[in-house]
């Protein structure tokens, strides 16, 4: 079948080359954006008297009918077409005749595809933002429910200082808030209309680019026609934001995997988000968390693929830029799928407070507070540090924890120890003393929850 661009050439391409060149297999998902953009373009052509207003109305009605038929399933996308833009124009021309051929006046597929991509990313960014906020909301709810649950905080995967489970969860809430901010900020650069840039140099027709931009809810237009069709930095930024967010989900998934193991047993994941083993009946595998961790690499790859595609391209449009779509589409699908799994997995996660507290006690994470106790009694910190280390070593050798060691043993190391010591090294007291803003104290955690909820409320 001859192509709609036949003229300079016969429009006949070798079948293998045609399949290689075709993008409709993946860009068909942008049919709504393509048709909506075309309706705005037809309206502009009519308003500017480039075509008659009646012809513009016929085009818009025809496009609306095609969209309705696609949505209802009455019309199927013809995969023999080169891309979604050609399919829509071909279908419109088949229905309207010569009037349909007027739609492409004063535009190129170069600015048309850039428009579709921006509209697509704008829609998907809004969807992803809603899902990120839903996950943050679940984290805030879990934090409120576990405000008083003591657990060890870690550095180097070694038990370090006592915190609460709420405090730990809120760290991820803060990361995700920044992820949401990044997607929101990126919208300023996504929501810029390229339509009217045409192939690269603009057009000789008296178009109104702002008319189309406003019709399609864009806040601005690309101010240079070459730039409008030849860059995909807005896609790179979107993918970078997606990769950063997936990195946060991956780190959280890693902790869920550790926490749900028998070695930790800090949480139990719902059966709905775990699997069993084919030969080991005792197993409950955190496959969903592992898959989120694994799929992070896909999104990293999508980012690197597009950066590599763009890095050597001369201006303006090059066919290489067709490779932007599969990377973007894959990242969008992966991010949404991971969020859709993570949200209910966290909502149904069951913390095991007794195991967390036992790990905190056995980790001697109140040893810093023990040293601070002696410092407050007048002992130099380095001396207090050494005594505390000696006492911890003795507890380990004797199978005790600091809270159970008798006072007379303490006094053998320093006469500064007294009965008030036990209150100072109580794990809950240790947490409550972390009163600095953003710290682990209950009041600080309450303030963090309030901050998260306020951010969610204000969007």
Descriptive notes:
This protein has 459 residues and is mainly α. It folds into three domains: 17-105, Orthogonal Bundle (Fumarase C, Chain B, domain 1); 110-149 and 162-357, Fumarase C, Chain A, domain 2, CATH 1.20.200.10; 362-457, Ribonucleotide Reductase Protein R1, domain 1. Helices cover 62% and strands 5% of the residues. The protein is built from 19 helices and six strands. It has helices at 15-21, 24-27, 31-47, 53-72, 84-96, 109-145, 165-190, 209-215, 225-230, 233-259, 287-310, 324-347, 353-362, 367-376, 381-398, 407-413, 421-424, 427-432, 442-457; strands at 150-155, 158-164, 192-193, 220-221, 267-268, 350-351. It has a two-stranded antiparallel ribbon with strand order 1-2. A two-stranded parallel sheet has the order 3-4. Helix 8 (209-215) links the parallel strand 3 (192-193) and strand 4 (220-221). Helix 3 packs across helix 8 (209-215) and helix 14 (367-376) crosses helix 15. The longest helix has 37 residues, at 109-145. The protein is elongated, with a radius of gyration of 31 Å.
Task: Describe the structure using short key phrases.
mainly alpha; elongated; 3 domains; 459 residues; Fumarase C, Chain A, domain 2; Fumarase C, Chain B, domain 1; two-stranded parallel ribbon; two-stranded antiparallel ribbon; Ribonucleotide Reductase Protein R1, domain 1; 19 helices
For the largest beta-sheet, the strand count, sense and barrel status come to: 2 strands, antiparallel
Q: What's the pLDDT, averaged over the residues?
A: 94
From the 3D structure, determine the CATH topology of the largest domain: Fumarase C, Chain A, domain 2
Rg on CA atoms, Å:
31 Å
The level of helicity is 55-70%
Coarse morphology: elongated
Number of strands: 6
Strand order of the largest sheet: 1-2
Number of separate structural domains: 3
């Amino acid at each position: 079948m001859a192509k709609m661009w036949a003229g300079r050439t016969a429009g006949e391409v070798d079948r293998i080359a045609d399949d290689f060149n075709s993008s409709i297999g993946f860009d068909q998902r942008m049919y709504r954006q393509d048709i909506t953009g075309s309706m705005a373009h037809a309206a502009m052509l009519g308003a500017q008297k480039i075509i008659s207003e009646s012809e513009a109305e016929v085009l818009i009605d025809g496009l609306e009918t095609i969209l309705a038929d696609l949505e209802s399933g009455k019309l199927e996308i013809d995969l023999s077409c080169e891309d979604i833009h050609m399919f829509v124009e071909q279908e419109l021309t088949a229905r309207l005749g010569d009037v349909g051929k007027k739609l492409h006046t004063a535009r190129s597929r170069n600015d048309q595809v850039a428009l579709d991509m921006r509209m697509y990313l704008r829609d998907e960014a809004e969807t992803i933002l809603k899902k990120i906020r839903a996950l943050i909301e679940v984290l805030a709810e879990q934090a409120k429910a576990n405000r008083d649950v003591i657990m060890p905080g870690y550095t180097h995967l070694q038990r370090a200082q006592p915190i609460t489970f709420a405090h730990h969860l809120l760290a991820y809430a803060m990361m995700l808030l920044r992820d949401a901010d990044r997607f929101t900020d990126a919208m300023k650069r996504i929501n810029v209309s390229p339509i009217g840039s045409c192939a690269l140099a603009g057009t000789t027709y008296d178009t109104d680019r702002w008319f189309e931009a406003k019709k399609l809810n864009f806040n601005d237009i690309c101010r240079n026609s070459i730039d409008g069709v030849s860059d995909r930095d807005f896609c790179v930024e979107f993918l970078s934001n997606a990769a950063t967010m997936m990195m946060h989900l991956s780190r959280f998934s890693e902790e869920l995997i550790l926490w749900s193991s028998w070695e930790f047993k800090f949480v139990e994941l719902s059966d709905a988000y775990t699997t069993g083993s084919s030969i080991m009946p005792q197993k409950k595998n955190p496959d969903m968390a592992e898959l989120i961790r694994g799929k992070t690499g896909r999104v990293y790859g999508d980012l690197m693929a597009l950066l590599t595609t763009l890095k050597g391209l001369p201006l303006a449009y090059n066919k290489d830029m067709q490779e932007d779509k599969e990377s973007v589409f894959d990242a969008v699908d992966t991010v949404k799928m991971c969020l859709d799994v993570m949200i209910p997995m966290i909502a149904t996660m069951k913390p095991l407070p007794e195991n967390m507290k036992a790990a905190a006690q056995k980790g001697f994470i109140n040893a810093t507070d023990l040293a601070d106790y002696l410092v407050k009694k007048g002992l130099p910190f380095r001396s207090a540090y050494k005594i505390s280390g000696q006492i911890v070593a003795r507890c380990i050798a004797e199978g005790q924890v600091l809270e159970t060691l008798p006072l007379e043993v303490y006094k053998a190391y320093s006469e500064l120890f007294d009965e008030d010591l036990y209150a100072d090294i109580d794990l809950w007291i240790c947490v409550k003393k972390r009163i600095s803003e953003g710290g682990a104290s209950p009041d600080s955690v309450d303030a963090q929850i309030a901050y998260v909820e306020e951010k969610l409320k204000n969007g």
